[in-house]
């Protein structure tokens, strides 16, 4: 996609008092950015950042989340310790429940009747509206319905109806607000994505948002806050850690290869559980892969992660070795990983693999190539956590509808634990979510790096690479089901095709699975 000077967007952004980016940059102050591809790293890999942030800062007083928050880390630690027990204790492990949830084992949230997939249902509505317009019938567009207005904007742009788009987008600008209802807040960012797509400047805005990120410590706090108020990512990692703990329960030498190490926070409770394993702790080697871009969000190089892990090694009295690989995931080779004989290998893909291009972007298909390389290591287990969304190869308008449906659920769930007028909430959504939304809507080709796939597609890719599914522990599922109730009754946990799906109401948002 050609890059244009941000100055070309001056009219669009400057005349919008509700624009979420109007105070973030002045188009006159930027020149055209380089066409050199700026690979994106999920530096906002939320669940791996750990900053002290009290529950009282996250929730208003009296919420069940605040009351439960202190139990979550304890439950995770108990979960992983239980999974490290001997095989002889297996029956006891699968019938126990976390101490905070009582003696009765919690059942999985039952599957609810589901509506047609979000993008599909929106597309049907849009097609009906278009057919009515062609027949000269009154518009089916409901007044004061922002969601339908956004859909009309996306459809007009996809059909290159420029005059209609300008009128609709102007109306939408007057209806969105970064401090309003969830659809108003999401709409603010989707409107900017649509305008950026029209002006062919999506990559410029995307890069500018990266260049104008807040101070590293502030960005970390926003990431951690989103991690705390939304359980999807946290519990996706719980599922991954549970699978690793179970697969490696009897191994003396464990090599964890983490394709998005961030600060290494994911491994704190697992190392603690391994240290308490009957018969003594194993030797653990952690290979941390993280592209150079993530250094900013982490607040330091991978050397800082190594120091942190060394501190945990001393604290928990478990031998831990750290090996840093500061490169992009597709560049990783088997030689870099320095696999040693006798190691039980566990590979972790935490919300990372969708950033690796596939055959639709690169004829060499780095995404499947990376999976084949990992399979050649003969890992004991490989864990995958991904957004349950279909935005990889779908056409623009379908992708727009899917993004609207996915992030509508995400923004609604944020409302449960974070008041709308809180500055922290605005910062979380602007710095942790908006950039991805703009990228999905406004960019194409190599510039579009947010390329999510549904679990069914991931399953096909893993199986073609030679993997078989590794069953997730029913005990892990029961623990996560219990913890979800600390947030809201609207969070759901379902099992489908061997994967665990975490969602909001009837929309699945995160999938977790394991393979070997």
Describe this structure in words.
This protein is an alpha/beta fold and 516 residues long. Helices cover 46% and strands 11% of the residues. It contains 21 helices and nine strands. The chain has helices spanning 10-14, 55-58, 64-83, 90-95, 118-134, 146-158, 162-173, 182-198, 202-211, 216-229, 231-247, 268-275, 294-298, 302-316, 334-337, 366-375, 396-417, 423-432, 434-442, 455-464, 474-484; strands spanning 253-258, 283-289, 320-325, 344-350, 381-387, 469-470, 491-496, 499-504, 507-515. Strands 1, 2, 3, 4, 5, 6, 7, 8 and 9 form a nine-stranded mixed sheet that branches. Strand 7 and strand 8 (499-504) form a beta hairpin. The longest helix has 22 residues, at 396-417. The radius of gyration is 23 Å and the shape is globular.
Query: Topology as H/E string?
Result: HHHHHHHHHHHEHEHHEHEHEHHHHEHEEE
* Main β sheet profile: 9 strands, mixed
Shape summary: globular
Gyration radius, in Å: 23 Å
Number of strands: 9
Helix content: 40-55%
Ends distance: 39 Å
Mean pLDDT: 77
Which structural class best describes the helix and strand composition?
Answer: alpha/beta
Please state roughly what percent of the residues sit in beta strands, choosing from under 5%, 5-15%, 15-25%, 25-35%, 35-45% or over 45%.
Answer: 5-15%
How large is the count of helical segments?
21
Poorly predicted runs are: 1-17, 21-67, 86-116, 128-140
